[in-house]
Amino acid sequence: MRADSAPAGSAMLETRDLTVRFGGHVAVDHVSCTFQPGTLTAIVGPNGAGKTTYFNLISGQLPASEGQVLLAGEDITALPAPLRTRRGLGRAFQLTQLFPHLTVRENVRLAVQAREQGRGKGGGLGGIDLLRLWLDHKEWIAEADALVEQVRLGHRAADTAASLPHGDQRKLEVAMLLALDPKVFMFDEPTAGMSVDEVPVILDLIRALKARKDIVVLLVEHKMDVVRELSDRIVVLHNGQLVADGAPAEVIASPVVQQAYLGMAAEEPA
C-alpha cells in the first residue's frame, strides 16, 4: 500500500450528503457513500439519474451546493479539479480529454511527468540539474512507452491523438489515467463508442486494477453484463437520490431496481 493511502479498514473516498442544485432542480440529492480500497463500485441508474453529475461533484468539475467529499480522510470539497487530481483522484472522461496535436507517446509522457512533478520530482527551478532532467525525461518516455504498449497502441505511438479513431482515443485516455497512478480511478462509460473487438482491452485493464488492494475503482456503466462481471458493489441512483446500495446479486435481484432502474432505461445513453 502506498504511504499516503487510507488506513486499513477506513474509507479511501467518502461523500457526505453531497448535493447540487441547478435553479430549483436538485440533480444530486444528499448522497452519502463510502468507498473502501480494493473495491470496484458500479454506479448505475436510468437516464438522467445523476450518475455523471455525481462523478463531476467528486472530481471537482462541479462545485457542491451542500455536503462534503473526503479523500483518505481529507476534506477536499473546496479544492478545484486540478488539485484533486494531485491529491489522487483520477478521472477518465466520457468524452476524451487529450492533447490532439501531440503524439500518443507525448500525451502519456506528459501525464507521467505531471505525476512525478506533482510529487516533487523532476528538477526544480532553484538549481536546474540538466543531467537529472535528461535522465528523468528518458525515464518518463520509457514508462510512457510501456503504458502505450499496455493499452495496445504501440503501433500508433508516433501518431497524433487527433488522428486516432474514437476507440483508440479511449485507450489513450486510459493510458494517461494509468500514468497518473491515482488512489481513485473513475471511469465514465469507458467502452462507449468502441467496437466489439476493442472492448476487451479496456475491460482487461479494469480487471487488473480491480485486483489491486490499495485503490478504489468507480465505474459508471449502462452495459449490465459489464456491471455484473466487474463490480464488487452496485450503487443505484434515481432522480439524484441513492435508492439501492449493495452486493451485485442482491441489488440486481431487487424487484424495484429491476423494474425501475435496470430494465430498458439502463441500456440507454447517459
Short overview:
Helix content is 36%, strand content 23%. It is built from nine helices and ten strands.
Quickly count the domains.
2
Largest sheet: 6 strands, mixed
In CATH, the homologous superfamily of the largest domain goes by the name P-loop containing nucleotide triphosphate hydrolases
- Uncertain segments are 1-8, 123-127, 264-270
Can you list the strand order of the major beta sheet?
6-7-8-3-9-10
According to CATH, what is the topology of the largest domain? Rossmann fold
Apparent shape: globular
Mean pLDDT: 85
Please give the count of helices: 9
Named at the architecture level, the CATH assignment of the largest domain is 3-Layer(aba) Sandwich
Helix content estimate: 25-40%
Count the beta strands.
Answer: 10
Q: Order of SSEs, N→C?
A: EEEHEEHEHHHEHEHEEHH
Estimated structural class: alpha/beta
Proportion of β residues?
A: 15-25%
CATH classification, class level of the largest domain: Alpha Beta
Give the terminus-to-terminus CA distance.
34 Å
Backbone CA Rg: 19 Å
Topology:
Layout: E1 13-22, E2 25-35, E3 39-44, H1 51-59, E4 66-71, E5 74-75, H2 81-87, E6 89-92, H3 104-118, H4 130-150, H5 166-180, E7 184-188, H6 199-210, E8 216-220, H7 224-230, E9 233-238, E10 241-246, H8 248-253, H9 255-260
Helix pairs in contact: 3-4, 3-5, 4-5
